[in-house]
Amino acid sequence: MHVKNIMAKDVVVVDKDQNIHDAFKLMKKHKISRLPVINTNQNHQKEIVGIITEKDIALRLGSSKYGNLAPSHFYVSTVMTPQPLIAEPNQTLSTTAETMLENGIGGLIVVESGDIVGMVTKSDFLETCQGKPFNEIPVNERMNKDLTTIEPQDRLVHARRIIIDKKIGRIPVTENGQLQGMITAKDIALAMMSFRKVVPDKYKPARIRNLLVEDVMVQNVKTISEETPVSEAAMIMLDNNFSGLPVANDQGMTGIITKTDFLKLIVELEKV
């Protein structure tokens, strides 16, 4: 199977001179987590100059260096990753998955003859994880058991720092070993965006430092059992637009399975 078989073809883009508030609104409206960044040249041609993600916005908005700036003062060009990696429509899925894994990225712009023809993300790969052997592999064989967690009373800036240092997109929130919620880069971006719009400039750095994880986290998080087939986990993640699912038993949380784990499995199966 090739990239063209699973990629999204109606690609939403953002101009490099728009602000990140506009970019984030586009992501929310279209329920996507990344946007190709374009620049329209003198010949009215649209050039790809970068890519911007929810995580990019969360990390920049939480930076003390830019503590007093409102989102309207952050331009896409200052937050985006320039010269993004691209894929071609006829690339194999395993080659594309390997590129994403090796570079720690969640999506690739698909380009043909210099034009954007699609976008392929980890979510698109989930759709291929049906039938054999995916319905025969239990989640506990693929989940990450080396858990990074955070507590409800921890500060939001601490959660942001963990996401940066660990290069992850979400953190389970636990208290006394029990799962209380989940916090993602998107949650942090949304909180920072809203906060900066309503708090006077001179108070922003101090107030942001006092935001707590429990103020922002998503509660009543869905969990799955260790025996759940990875095919079922993939469908739950797709249907709910989740990027990760906690795995739990009667004693509490035992692991987490993410889109990255599915990419690794696809690459491994291709090599068998």
Q: What would you note in describing this structure?
A:
The protein is α+β, with helices and mostly antiparallel strands and 272 residues long. The protein folds into two domains: 3-121, CBS-domain, CATH 3.10.580.10; 134-271, Roll (CBS-domain), CATH 3.10.580. The protein has eleven helices and twelve strands. The protein has helices at 20-30, 54-61, 76-79, 93-103, 122-126, 156-166, 185-198, 204-210, 213-216, 230-240, 259-271; strands spanning 14-15, 34-40, 46-53, 81-82, 86-87, 107-112, 115-121, 170-175, 178-184, 218-219, 244-249, 252-258. A four-stranded mixed beta sheet has the order 1-2-3-4. A three-stranded mixed beta sheet has the order 5-6-7. A three-stranded antiparallel beta sheet has the order 8-9-10. Helix 2 (54-61) crosses helix 7 (185-198) and helix 4 (93-103) crosses helix 11 (259-271). The longest helix has 14 residues, at 185-198. It is flat and about 60 Å long. The model has no long low-confidence stretch (mean pLDDT 88).
